[in-house]
Amino acid sequence: MDIYLETERLFLRRFTADDADLLIELDSDPAVMRYLSGGAATPPELVRERQLPYIVAGYEKWGGDLGLFAAHDKEDGAFIGWFLLRPEPEGPLDEVELGYRLRQAAWGRGLGTEGSRALLRKAFDELGLRLVWAETMSMNRGSRNIMEKLRMTHTDTIPTPPDMQMVEGAEHGGVRYEITKEQWAQQQSHREGAPAPTT
Asked: Other CB atoms closer than 10 Å to residue 196's CB: what's the count?
């Protein structure tokens, strides 16, 4: 198994071409897809023919350091969803998006925050990235709670994309949160009780 990182309760691994059924099941839950497609499932052929090949190709494109990663519960090995840490297709490599999509069984347990915090640590402490950003619908309080627990800064309100106009709360648009390497370092120094760096 191609492990990407581990936390106290999770391990993240790189997807393989054999993982389509995991993604199809995740995207078939109306509650999971509520703020993404209005509850509609992702067509299985789209997952198999486009999404999964794109995910797997991304590991080669970004040297295995960035991409979309399957998340499993360490206790029983169950697939709980995925986490994302990757740049825009044509964007700068030192600015990456943080994302997550978790099965209902994983909700309310702090796993989204745990996995996301580990990805921020990897992004800034190991990969030396400059900026991590995340976006969600304004109405998606669960996702926003994770961004706020990570002490990301709400930087912008964004319009709802045309293909998401059917989503609940589409009229309120979306929100963007960001955190820089400097902000992350300052948080860690405060957490450890050391003075923040001045440069």
From this structure: 11
